[in-house]
Amino acid sequence: MKKLYVLLFLIAFNSVSAQSNTEVYLLDIENNNEKIELVNLKNISNNKGYDNQPSFYDDNTIIFSSTREGQTDIAQYNIEEGNISYITNTTSGSEYSPLKIPGKEAISAIRLDTTGLQRLYQYDSKKQKSSVLLEDLKVGYHVWYNEHIIISSVLVDNRMDLVVSNLKDKTNHTLHKNVGRSLHKIPNTDVVSFISKEKDTWVIKSIHPISGAIQEIKPVPLKIEDMFWLNDGTMIVGLGKIIAKFNPKNDKDWSVLHRFTQDEINEISRIAVSKDGNHLAIVSEESPAIIVQKQVDTFNKADLDGFASCYSKNVVVCNFPSDTLYTGNETLKSNYKRFLANNQSKVTVTKRIVMGNKVIDQENAVVNGKQKQQVAIYEVKNGKIISMSFIPHNEDHPEAEKIVQEQLEAYNARNIDDFVNTFSDTVKAYDYPTKLNMDGKEQLQKIFSGFFSQTPDLHCEIKNRIVIGNMVIDEEFVTANGDNFSAVALYKINGDKIDKMYFIR
Question: Which residues of the chain have pLDDT under 50?
Answer without folding.
Answer: 1-18
